[in-house]
Records
---
Amino acid sequence: MVGAYPSGAGCSWPLRSLYKCPNLKIEEYSVLTNAGRARAMRAPGNVQGTFAFEQMIDTIAEKIGMDPIEFRKINYTDVDPDWGGKYTSKKLIEAYDQGAKAIGWEKRNKPGSGEGTVKRGIGMASQIWWGGGSPPGYATLKLNSDGSLNISSGTQDIGTGTYTILAQVASEILEIPMDKIQVTLGDTETGPYGTASGGSMTAPTMTPAVYDAAVQMMDKLKSGAAAILEVSEDELNYSNGIFTVKNDPQKTIDISKIVNELNARTLVTTGARNANPDGYAINTFGAQFADVEVDTETGKIKVNKIVAAHDIGRAINPMTLNNQIHGGVIQGLGFALFEERIMDSYTGKTVNANFHDYKVPTIKDTPEIVPIIVSETDTLISPVGAKGVGEPAIIPTAAAISNAVYNAIGVRIKSAPMTPDKVLNAINNL
Amino acid sequence: MKNFEYIQPGSLNAVSTLSKEKFVSSHLFAGGTDVLGLMKDNIISPDRLINLKNLPNMDKIVYKKGEGISIGTLVKISDIAENEDIMNHFTALAQAAGEVASPQLRNVGTLGGNICQRPRCWYFRGEFDCIRKGGGICYAYEGENKFHCIVGGGPCYIVHPSDTAVALTALNASIKIHSNGTMKEIPIREFFILPEDDPMKENILEPGEAITEIFIPELETGKKSAYIKLKERDVWDFMTVSIAAVADVSGSLINNVELAFGGTAPKPWYDENINKVFINSKISDLETNVKKIFNDSELLSKNKYKLQLIRNLTKRILNNFSA
Amino acid sequence: MKEEKNMKGISRRRFIKGVGTGIVGSYVMLPTMKDSEAKITKSPKDEVLESVRTETLETTINGRKVKSKVEPRTTLADFLRDYLELTGTKVVCNHGECGGCSVILDGRAVYSCMLLALDANGKEVITIEGLMSGENLHPLQQAFIEHDGLQCGFCTPGQIMAAYALLKKFPNPTDEQIMTGMSGNLCRCAAYPNIIKSVRGAAKKMNS
Ligand SMILES: Cc1cc2nc3c(=O)[nH]c(=O)nc-3n(C[C@H](O)[C@H](O)[C@H](O)COP(=O)(O)OP(=O)(O)OC[C@H]3O[C@@H](n4cnc5c(N)ncnc54)[C@H](O)[C@@H]3O)c2cc1C
Ligand code: SF4
Ligand code: FES
Ligand code: FES
């Protein structure tokens, strides 16, 4: 796991934090290899750790004759097992229940009990990750005299939808339509510092910063409106860019007019991400369920369906959120079935450093994916209440697929990717 | 990629002369989807590319009932996959063509280019000076060989990458070759060579020679053909193992069969003795009969699964004929 | 390393460095260096060193006739991006393995990285830049926005060109036809489910 530079892979995090277990000993060590540098990839270490750990959990459940979900539920923990902190929110039970229903868990048969050469199986796995976000993270809002709004921040959008959700948060508070908001990201020269893309931090860090800036903007506008209309702030109503005096609805002023009347040209505010609450653990949770078919004559695994039930706090934009879940699941499927760096052990050279030998999933490998969001807003974290989703979505997929494969054929494949050669070797005991 | 001369000859004779010119390394160029890959990876670096695409009359498909079908070397793989006559009468070839690479590559790659493409051994395509590139050792033999051959290997252990070649081998096609002013016709079963004959090439073509067309004789009545391919990814992936079969199966009896195997050997593998195991055998005996094939294979450290896979797929393709 | 002086007082290491640069220089110049091949043509303004290893390409790109001199080794992708600055076409793998460079050549989707520019001679090329009419997005482009058929967007020009060829062939594609038609384009973000929706959505709009 470790490349030229010693940095731990963190594979054991899910083992330490997913369940309540008072007598837990975990040993994790790094091995210095000569195989090129290790690079981070969506939830580094946790995909691998979960792949191993959640197969172990299923194995234990089977040994004691218990349903795997039941077993997970009795080992459920309300506090972080590492240091005892209470979670700001945890909806893992809901993820188990709603996911099980969506996949048809009750149809699940005994491992390897199917007839015929193509065997069907159902399996699941849980997920834990951070993804609560934290300071520092800033965003600057500029309200222009034509009523349009600019948002700028040094954070970025790597395809995760940051542009959209930042505009949404500002639009929700200031009631400015989305098409009048322009977002400029990716440059700390034009905008204040924003978080880097990593750790599923962007949404939970940056949306509260925009929220804070928008609330400040609202305060400015309100005091401006009160001064211009010569009433006190309490006497004002606000809706869709217009302040109205409660007792005298004829008296109104819209926000662009306020900017002009104040002779300000632009109103500027900068908001910051609030501190996280003391004494709490902040985590994302989820459970994914896989329905697979294993062709026992070719060793090929086909994933029919993945149900992805996640607790990610508030879902700001369901469309970009689902896209993230699709992406995480399909990349997880790639890890489970195809993707592998193959190195020649005599020369230390990678032999498959190209896109036809290193196999990334294609559109044809894509299963039906059913995202389910089991959470609502997590108000302890921030006024926006969002947690991250980028990494949670990839973490349990491979483990769920491997548990489903076991359920189908009754043989455990303990190494990823589960390519036809490995499956055939395992079935035939080679 | 170093620069080169790009020549557009107007006749096959010009192709011969240009390819044989001394002190200039020349390479034939059809769709170019393999040649450009090889050039970008510095596996070949010709001074001259000889473009075949503008040669007349080499891009036609002509079917004559009762005789067979002639397919020009320049016919695009996608046109083969979608040709009605090929789908109806030479199904294995249409299926194999449909399994090649991706839509975009099928739109450009030609049939001649597909059967003459160089192997995909990752050492050959990577920065290893192995035997096939004129070096001294085969890195795959003791290295990463899960996709390598189980028969016909040594001193090099490639598998032949072409899907269409496997189908054409089962279909007993022949290849028409222009050779310095004359034409010759070679059965495809004699077109490919093993590394023991020459580890640096995959077929008998000599400089100055070019394929002009591929001819497949009409199948005898009662015979049908099919192609199956196992690949790790669902699409855009070379075969792990593939099989083409031409068979006459009535009910549960296999009257006749000719099998060709891909992903198995350095050439599309064809062996009369394998056919004999199944000729006049029952479908219900497949389970025991498949154990009689490939018993002489030389398994490498990471490709043992292929033996099982080939046997299972043989069972499957023959079973499908009776279904 | 101890620096050894040679006769002229130039250190050995610097000497080697100097030779190194020379080699690189002559390599870059190679196409124009063969005396017999290079010819100097005088234009009124300046001298142009022109190699016979460039050839004339005449093609139609996004409906416009283009004539240019190119080296034979120039791929169509490089020609589009470097000569014409049509950088919507992306080069990712440069080996026919990803689909980022997909364009339409005479009605069919192809990988422009695996084609020589000279092979577009006399043919018609359509790139992502050719899909808009004036300021209006093509229904496919619109559909990819509406259905969020992308994440980072890097594969998107290629996806849209593959979809364009697909819908030309099957204006009412089945899901199976969509999956096959789009199977030569990788999306590392794996926006595939929304890509399918986008293609479906565009087909519906284009037929109505
Ligand atoms: C990512 C990727 C995936 C692929 N997957 C598959 C796959 O799954 N299955 C498969 O079968 N192929 C696959 N291919 C290979 C692809 O199909 C071939 O590159 C293509 O068929 C070659 O055709 P071409 O016309 O482009 O050949 P070219 O590149 O033009 O030529 C290939 C070779 O054939 C020679 N040649 C061409 N025409 C003639 C002729 N008339 N006479 C004599 N020699 C000739 C050339 O000199 C050259 O050596 C894949 C390729 C890529 C890049
Ligand atoms: S199998 Fe052949 S091509 Fe591959 S490393 Fe060995 S000699 Fe080279
Ligand atoms: S850049 Fe052309 S296919 Fe990848
Ligand atoms: S959207 Fe990022 S690669 Fe497709």
Note: Chain B touches chain C at residues 1-6, 32-33, 36-37, 40, 49, 51, 53, 78, 101-105, 107-108, 235-236 (CB under 8 Å).
---
Amino acid sequence: MLSLPALVGRQSLAFARYLGGLAEMFSKATYWTFVAPFRGKGVRGSATMRQMVVVGFQAVPIVSLICAFVGIIIALQGAYELRKFGALNYVVDMVAITVTRELAPLLTAIIVIGRSGSAFAAEIGTMKVGEEVDALETMGLNPIRFLVVPKYLAMLVMMPCLTIVADTAGVLGGAFFAITNLDSSLSGYLLATVDSLLLRDIVSGLIKSVVFAVIITKIGCYEGFSVRGGAEGVGRSTTSAVVKSIFSVIAADMIFTAIFYFTNGS
Amino acid sequence: MEVDPRGRQINLQVAPVLLPMAATTENHNSILIRNLSSTLGGREVLREINLEVRRGETLVILGGSGSGKSTLLRHIVGLEEPTAGEVLIFGKNINRISEDEFNEIRKKIGMAFQGSALLNSMSVGENVALPLREHTNLEDSTIQIMTRIKLEQVGLSGFESFAPSQLSGGMKKRAGIARALAMDPEILLFDEPSAGLDPIIAAGIDELILKLKHAFHMTVVVVTHELTSAFLIADRIVVLDKGSILAEGTPDEIRHCTNPRVRQFLERQPDHEEQDAEKYLNSLTEEA
Ligand SMILES: Nc1ncnc2c1ncn2[C@@H]1O[C@H](COP(=O)(O)OP(=O)(O)OP(=O)(O)O)[C@@H](O)[C@H]1O
Ligand SMILES: [Mg+2]
């Protein structure tokens, strides 16, 4: 049995080591994505395109559906409270702002964690177990450049795109509620939405989504590379990639929301 | 194009641009291992290994299961960090040089893994073509021809478009060998190339190794359990046991080696220690 201080110390050390590993991965992947191409070491274009389709395009239906539902839910919940003040018009603002600033980037990130973050860990983990990663290294091919960079680029491009899709779907969900219950017209609702939104709202959501893309790729790939043992290890790493990503995304979300709040004042 | 005795075609013509003839250094050894020790997962897997592989020779590493043969090969390609000692390839200490420099050296090394290690997301043909695609500026058509030649050499012509999962174990292993040959490397490392292959194909692999040695003067290191194959292809044999070198010499020297462990290995005698009941019981109580 370990004493409590020893346990705490050991856990903190393990945590620090994990963060160190993530940071190393981040700097290597960033080097291979943004610096190495200018030194004549190209990015694998076709693999990047394939990842973009899998990570981004194929996620469009599920992201739109979930965000439309959430748009409806917010409108319903908002109307319930706002009705008391006779301020039903503000449902439009409420949906527009909560969706673009908060829920669209967050929900997109969580869907992408489930679809792609887990897949990154499982794919790289399986390759690690099958000595495929070792084979790449012996062929003189950097596994980070070969495996992580296409995923990283695809995520950096596709997460903001998916977030815009989610913004749109959420607003349309709100519009669905307003049209069916508040007798407003679609064009009227959309105009009111445009009025209520500042560019800043949308941009802050997009900035978050880029940060989330970095977090999800890094944790998914890092968990994949740290697989030890066989199929069981792959399972464990996949689970842990999902849990750690969700935690980190929400923590980052809180920090960014606080930053936006205190730097903006509105 | 030559035809081997079994009627299979073996093609030895390779695009001259990639021929590895030119000597890169003045040294006469391709691989030099000095005092190499390795600890993995808290256990000492290799202990003070000293080994030299001369340019153009075929070295066979014999040894029981778990004696550290694969680990030794992994050290030669830099997949493991030594706990002590050093590995020099073409005179360069691979643990000291930069990654870029090491990758240049790695292009001249082909490694066929024990478990083939093909990339499952790519077809067999793409696997073999991968090093050529990434490291050379050859035309696509040239790469395709070279891929076909390499697959032909291991008796896998016509399987380019198969996924690795569609191949049998032995076929995967041969595809892995074809990939190791792709860059016409100066050093070839085989981890049990003929384990799990039928005798005819295993003989074909032996013949391929001999041809690579004679025609291209490649330096070949083969890890194997197959004694007949070892004595057929080896210029020199190293016997590894429990992580250290037990015996080293020409096939004749090894054949007449008097070390009891080596004799046991060569004569295929089982371990008798565990059958001594009293000793066995003692060993159990000692550990407790
Ligand atoms: N990553 C690792 N962590 C801990 N121990 C390891 C690791 N890799 C290998 N070993 C141990 O090192 C020893 C040598 O393993 P190695 O794979 O080199 O054996 P081998 O001689 O190739 O055996 P075989 O003929 O069965 O392939 C084994 O006892 C194994 O348990
Ligand atoms: Mg082995």
Note: Chain B has a mean pLDDT of 84.
